[in-house]
Amino acid sequence: MEASRSRRYASFAGRTLVRIGLAILGGFGFLLILQNEIQYNIFDAVFLSTFARLLFSGVMNTLFFMGIVIPTGIVIGFVTGWARVSKYKFLSYPATAYVDVIRGIPLIVLVLFAYFFGPFIVPGLFGFTDVGKFFAALALALHTGAYQAEIFRAGFQSVPKGQLEAAVAVGLTRGQAVGYVVMPQMFRLILPALANELASVAKDTSFLSIIGAMELFGNARSGTQIAIYNFGRLDWVFGLWTITALLYLLLTLALSKSLQHVERRYLVPGLGSVSA
Amino acid sequence: MIRAQNIHKYFGALHVLRGINLDVQKGDVLVIIGPSGSGKSTLLRCINMLVPPDEGDVFIDGVKVTSPEIRPEWVREQVGMVFQSYNLFTHLTALQNVTLALRKVKRWDDERANRRGRELLAQVGLAAKEDAYPAQLSGGQQQRIAIARALATDPKAVLFDEPTSALDPEYIKEVLDAMTDLARAGMTMIVVSHEMGFAKGVASRVLFMDHGVVLEEGTPGEVFESPKEERTRSFIGKVLR
After folding, report:
1. What residues in chain B have per-residue pLDDT under 50?
2. Neighbouring residues of A31: CB distance < 8 A, sequence distance ≥ 6
3. Which of chain B's residues have a Cβ under 8 Å away from the Cβ of A181?
């Protein structure tokens, strides 16, 4: 059984690589078509030397923000989702208010608000040189946390009450019953919705560009200005944004495929299946 | 073995149990019948402290389990429970379902827990299904695994909450057979069930509950053949076909 499972993973990893490869090939194909249509060359040494570093540092910064926002968002979502289903009103009321307020405010407003007002509240944090950006990232985490709270809440509520009761009835403490019986079942149920939300968050890091964060979207925008004003090359703009779109696609593909891998681990024979 | 004294339970304004007294001897099989909403399931849950009674006391082997010094987890190791809707852990195999309490409560190592788990699965005739997940099993098989799971901690008694009412008719017999074997082996059992055949064949006593009180109690012969109360008579008339 172990052997067949590892073989299943191997073929899954293989298929994933093939798909990512195809996506890259498709992107290059598109670039080649552009090259014919508007006579521009992405293998142009000037184009590459101008934008390679800009795009690379953009990807690294986007990864950095994803690295902050995704784990923080999951923790916020999990805790808030749990508080939402708590029988204690002093937990469930604030959690509900938090979800309602955050969901009712556009992300871009939250980001700006946090950027301008955050440093007033807590100036100088963890040696961050630009505290505003830290708060802007936190705003993004709070935003996705509110959406994830609803995913986690639905997950907790979807596990039948009888499961907890049976777990307690065999002698487990409430904590053990939640940890060994409720949570594994909840995670299996919420993974597709969570993958959806995380793919959104990965791309929503682009909102941080409005406060001057040098992530992928912001850098592509500066690149556009350089292409037009410094080089007068409108054709480069197409290449720049095609590559940017491809890089975002790669980031989200890597994220969603690794979550599908987790989904596979939680697969229960006889209970639903995972998409290929 | 199991004694309940003057048990009262309220759900909000609803007075579900109104002073129940029980006395079950070692090896007894007590069958509880009664209309839905009469408090049968709540009474079972008061005995293993899933729903602590608001008033009154429960004693198991002389230990007052309603006292605050007694951990409810300990009580549930002493008294197993089988549910109407089986409630097997859907993410665990049959064997893992049976051994969960051994591994996490008794802290046995996997090898020892699995050995005991396989014995219990064999006892309910499902040794071949140890790697199957609940969703791959029939209702009857799931309920038999639930019985094996209830026996894992080596309890002194087992409570059955309508163990056959969610089953398709073709699976009822295999579950009742497993319960009969258990009773014959001397297990103390309290069974909420309307399976009159089982009650007549296996029960040492039958108890009729209505509106949170025990209306009538006696041997299966007394309660089924010549009930004293009019309400018992009309209920049995409706249930027995």
Report:
1. none
2. A42, A239, A242, A243
3. 89, 91, 100
> What is the pTM (predicted TM-score) of this model?
0.82
**Which pLDDT belongs to residue A35?**
66
Instruction: Give CB contacts under 8 A, 24+ apart, made by B6-15.
Output: B6/B55, B6/B56, B6/B57, B7/B43, B7/B46, B7/B53, B7/B55, B7/B56, B7/B58, B8/B53, B8/B54, B8/B55, B8/B56, B9/B39, B9/B42, B9/B46, B9/B51, B9/B53, B9/B54, B9/B212, B10/B54, B15/B212
Q: Encode A82-112: b = buried (16+ Cβ within 10 Å), e = exposed.
A: bbbeeeeeebbeebbebbeebeeeebeebbb
- Closest CB to A169 among B50, B134, B136: B50
Q: Which residues of A touch B (CB under 8 A)?
A: 1, 160, 162-163, 165-173, 176, 180-181, 184-185, 188, 266, 268-271
CA–CA gap between residue A100 and residue A107 (Å, rounded): 13
Average pLDDT over residues A259-266: 84
The single-letter DSSP state of residue A129 is: S
pLDDT at A47: 82
Residues of B in contact with A165 (CB under 8 A): 50, 83, 87
Q: Could you tell me if A182 and A196 are in contact, meaning their C-beta atoms sit under 8 angstroms apart?
A: no
Residues in chain B whose Cβ is within 8 Å of chain A = 48, 50, 73-74, 76-77, 80-81, 83, 85, 87-91, 100-101, 104-105, 131-136, 146, 149-150, 152-153
3-state secondary structure chain B: CEEEEEEEEEECCEEEEEEEEEEECCCCEEEEECCCCCCHHHHHHHHCCCCCCCEEEEEECCEECCCCCCCHHHHHHHEEEECCCCCCCCCCCHHHHHHHHHHHCCCCCHHHHHHHHHHHHHHCCCHHHCCCCHHHCCHHHHHHHHHHHHHCCCCCEEEEECCCCCCCHHHHHHHHHHHHHHHHCCCEEEEECCCHHHHHHHCCEEEEEECCEEEEEECHHHHHHCCCCHHHHHHHHHHCC
pLDDT tens-digit profile of B193-236?
Answer: 989 889 999 999 999 999 999 999 999 999 988 888 889 998 98
Of A166, A176, A268, the CB nearest to B87: A166
Chain-chain contact of B90 with A170 (C-beta, under 8 angstroms): no
